[in-house]
Amino acid sequence: KTRYEVGLEKLKFAAEQVGEMQIELKELQPQLVVTAEENEKMMKHIEKESIEVEKMSKLVRADEEVASAKAKEATDLKEECENDLAEAIPALEAALAALDTLKPADITIVKSMKNPPGGVKLVMAAVCVMKDAKPDRINDPANPGSKIVDYWGPSKKLLGDMSFLNSLKIYDKDNIPVHIMKKIRQEFVPNPEFDPNKVKNASSAAEGLCKWVLALEIYDRVAKVVAPKKEALREAEILVNKLMETLDEKRAELAAVEAKLAALKESLREKIEMKERLEVQVDQCEKKLVRAEKLIGGLGGEKDRWSQSAKDLQFKYDNLIGDVLISSGVVAT
């Protein structure tokens, strides 16, 4: 009897489980459908976003190429300017170094000359031209009644200025007037006597001043060539800076959309995992339901028999004592 009852309890439990699994399956299937639809929509959205990211990425790469090309142009132009100036800078530095070697006593010696050598007068005339000092007009000893220009008077005035040497050191080499350089190139540079090696025999100060004038002539000549290049370099650097600012903005925008796309992909991955879990749950539930239904179907015919057998056994058990008494009485008689 107990075995029948236990079997009936298991059949009842199995029936209850079938009902619960049917409810669970009914709830899971719509969730699975919704999740699949959401995944489909998200995949389309990601595909669209990926196309936009790729477009933006191509634009950024194109801008990077343009910016790199312009930056290279600016760098090449800067190197060209530096190479051009490489001719003038060493000469200028050497001339300034020569000025540093001059002492006030050297200048005093030149100033005190009553009848300076031709080389000294030539160099000082060039210095006067560089300082834009006007010459005196004196009588021409070789041609009475005629006047000639003479720079020795203005030269002594310059040499008498205590700040004379310093004024040469801070001379505005980048803005030398055209008429000054024209006169230097026409009247002094071609003159074979305007040579530091020649005038140094007359005066060490004249040697240093001659080097200074020649160095500034070289610097001015090179600077006139370099000036347009420097302006072009300045404009190129401004353009590169603007391009880099725009490029940085686009890079930031690209990084933002890439982060958004990455977040979408991560969300899709989570939803795909959820869908896979739901599919596993549905599959397991369906398999359990099939097995339970087979079990119930196979034992469904036994349920009534087991119930009746359990009742019959209970009835016999209930009447067992009375049956034993009756049987005993019959045996005793």
Task: Summarize the entry for a quick read.
With 333 residues, this protein is mostly helical.
Explain what you see.
The protein starts with a helix and ends with a helix. Helix 1 packs antiparallel against helix 8, helix 2 packs antiparallel against helix 4 and helix 3 packs across helix 4. Helices cover 83% and strands 2% of the residues. A two-stranded antiparallel ribbon has the order 1-2. The radius of gyration is 55 Å and the shape is rod-shaped. The chain is built from nine helices and two strands, in the order H-H-H-E-E-H-H-H-H-H-H. With 333 residues, it is an all-alpha fold.
Helix/strand/pairing class, anyone?
A: mainly alpha
Average of the residue pLDDT scores: 79
Q: Whole-Å distance between the termini?
A: 33 Å
Q: How would you characterize the largest beta sheet?
A: 2 strands, antiparallel
* Amount of helix: over 70%
Q: What is the 3D form?
A: rod-shaped
Share of residues in strands: under 5%
Q: For the CA atoms, what is the radius of gyration?
A: 55 Å
Q: Record the strand order, biggest sheet.
A: 1-2
Q: Runs with pLDDT <50, length 5+? A: none
The count of helical stretches stands at 9
What is the succession of H and E elements?
A: HHHEEHHHHHH
